[in-house]
Design brief:
This protein has 240 residues and is α/β, with parallel strands linked by helices. It contains seven helices and 15 strands.
């Protein structure tokens, strides 16, 4: 049996259990969920949902949203279902994102895809390796799979390293989700962004915007008030 760590997100608003070893969620899914412009009555799809952090935070922030997550690892998928037991409107499908076809159309889709190059020595933990490492072509597979069930003008949003920005925009364009907005995540002021949030619009034709971004930490390592409001108080990330 997998050893579990009991925890929470959004300052206790969300119960969040996850594996004690292997892949563990950081702040990325919380920030990503805060950037999704979902409204009550809309449907949202998440690829690689893991133990459910992203969808859990989104459905807690925006009541009345229906969320569907796809997760390859059965243990992680079971944990996501366990974490969502007290939250209505969340469904977890187990399987490969390229093969699972969720029913119906979606207004938004999002993912924190595997982004480390599949070179060098992999983690001995197979689940962590699968969650973090991917061949270069996998970004296109994820973009295509998430874009396919989107309605026209639906949004596709990903969080990934800044060095993969060009590849992400190309993958989205190939999936007919033209890049609409880029939001840098600055570790501290005057420090280059390591991560970006990228949004595409299904069959969109608008111009690509570079947004001001979010500074995550003060000089002393504390979260900035803006980041703290998102991570603790379930505030939205104003990026659209």
């Amino acid at each position: 049996m997998t050893e579990i760590t009991r925890g929470h997100l959004l300052n206790g608003r969300v119960r969040y259990d996850q594996p004690a070893r292997g892949f563990r969620s950081g702040i990325e899914p919380v920030l990503l969920a805060a950037s999704i412009p979902a409204r009550a009555g809309e449907r949202v799809l998440e690829g690689g949902t893991g133990a459910g952090a992203g969808l859990l935070c989104l459905l807690t922030r925006v009541h009345g949203v229906e969320g569907v997550g796809i997760e390859l690892d059965p243990d992680q998928a079971d944990l996501a279902r366990h974490n969502a037991a007290s939250l209505s409107g969340m469904t977890i499908l187990t399987g490969d994102i390229a093969l699972v076809e969720p029913e119906g159309a979606f207004d938004h889709a999002f993912a924190n895809p595997p982004y480390h190059a599949a070179t060098g020595t992999p983690s001995p933990d197979l689940n962590r390796a699968a969650a973090k490492r991917a061949p270069a072509s996998l970004l296109g597979v994820w973009a295509s799979a998430l874009a396919r069930p989107l309605r026209t003008r639906g949004t596709l949003t990903m969080i990934l390293p800044a060095v993969q920005l060009q590849a992400c925009l190309q993958a989205m364009a190939a999936a007919d989700c033209r890049g609409e907005a880029i939001l840098p995540l600055w570790p501290k002021r005057d420090v280059p962004a390591k991560l970006v949030i990228v949004r595409g619009i299904r069959r969109g034709r608008g111009a690509l915007r570079l947004l001001p971004g979010l500074v995550l930490h003060e000089a002393d390592g504390r979260f900035t008030p803006e980041a703290d409001a998102i991570l603790r108080d379930a505030a939205p990330l104003a990026c659209c």
